[in-house]
Amino acid sequence: MLQPTDARDAILGRSARACRVLSLETTLKGVVGVFQHLFELVFEEVVAEERPHFSPSGKGDDLVWQEDVQAFAVWNDQQEGGEFLGYLYLDLYSRAGKYGGMCNINLQGV
After folding, report:
1. In this structure, are residues 70 and 92 in contact, taking their beta carbons and an 8 Å threshold?
2. Residues 93 and 52 both lie in one domain
3. Alpha carbon separation from 31 to 34, 35, 44, 48 (Å, rounded)
4. Does residue 110 lie in a domain region?
5. What pTM, to 2 d.p., does this model score?
6. Along the 110 residues of the chain, how does pLDDT read in single tens digits?
7. Are 33 and 46 members of one domain?
8. Same domain assignment for residues 88 and 69
9. Residues 28 and 52 in one domain
10. Which residues have C-beta within 8 Å of that of residue 64, sequence separation ≥ 6?
């Protein structure tokens, strides 16, 4: 069983067990699952080899601004009509020139 200090240790990289349990992949799956359940949404990750299919230009590089950005296509579930809602982008890794703090930006087409 995880202890309250395990989350802190995982963030600081001090607990191998906590890092495994609270890994980015595990945490992301859990958060996406909560959103799917609560808001009756469907999230489908758009992996690199599928990006050209989703991009209006047919170029997968147009869909994301950095290779390690994760993109998810988001729909209402079938009971809510199944319509496409948009994309969720996760730019989770640091790199030179990237804003260093937490950031949430809503993008909306015209």
Report:
1. yes
2. yes
3. 5, 6, 14, 22
4. no
5. 0.70
6. 556 565 666 556 556 666 666 778 888 898 899 999 999 999 999 998 888 888 888 888 888 888 888 899 999 988 878 899 988 888 888 888 888 777 777 776 65
7. no
8. yes
9. no
10. 51, 71, 89
